[in-house]
Amino acid sequence: MIPLHGDRFLRKITEADLPDVLRLDRETFPDDPYPYFALRQFHDALGDHLLVVDDGTALHGYILATPPLHASSWILSLVVSPALRGNGLGRELMTAMLRRLHEEGAGEVLLTVDPANGSAVALYRHLGFTPYGEFHPEYFGPGEPRQRMRLAF
């Protein structure tokens, strides 16, 4: 467990956490949350890289990354409970995961972000991510634009 600000800590997901992770995803992405089966597979396949924010009573966020493969890793999802946004929790999650990925041998970390999500874009830029490649107006399908971003260690 990694202590975070206040009474919160970061820990590896457990199977019992899946309903709360689904709840967080639905709160954050009400139009397109991950389905339960996908979260279950992430738990099974990437559980060591699926970390949750816990305060001992409830989960308040999670971060999902791929382990480094050929020195590259991906941040697949960063979720912070709407009630706690703007308090630095996303930065704490990203910082902890980036440190871990670097220690595991990642030479770069990649992600995609909706360019309309100004707070996420600002967070990633603050952490050193820069846009790379072409902007994709339909990365996840019609009306789902994404900018790819990269952080090199």
Please give a quick description of this structure:
By secondary structure, this protein is an alpha+beta fold.
- Indicate the proportion of strand residues: 25-35%
- Any idea what the CATH architecture is? 3-Layer(aba) Sandwich
Global shape:
globular
Overall CATH class: Alpha Beta
CATH fourth-tier homologous superfamily: Gcn5-related N-acetyltransferase (GNAT)
For this structure, the CATH topology is Aminopeptidase
Description:
With 153 residues, the chain is α+β, with helices and mostly antiparallel strands. The protein has one domain: Gcn5-related N-acetyltransferase (GNAT) (Aminopeptidase). 30% of the residues lie in helices and 27% in strands. Helix 1 crosses helix 2. It is globular and about 40 Å long. The mean pLDDT is 94.
Strand-helix topology:
Elements: E1 2-3, E2 9-12, H1 18-28, H2 36-46, E3 50-54, E4 59-65, E5 72-80, H3 89-103, E6 108-113, H4 118-126, E7 130-131, E8 147-152
Parallel strand pairs: 5-6
Antiparallel strand pairs: 1-2, 2-3, 3-4, 4-5, 6-8, 7-8
Task: Give the tags.
single chain, 153 residues, Aminopeptidase, 8-stranded mixed beta sheet, 30% helix
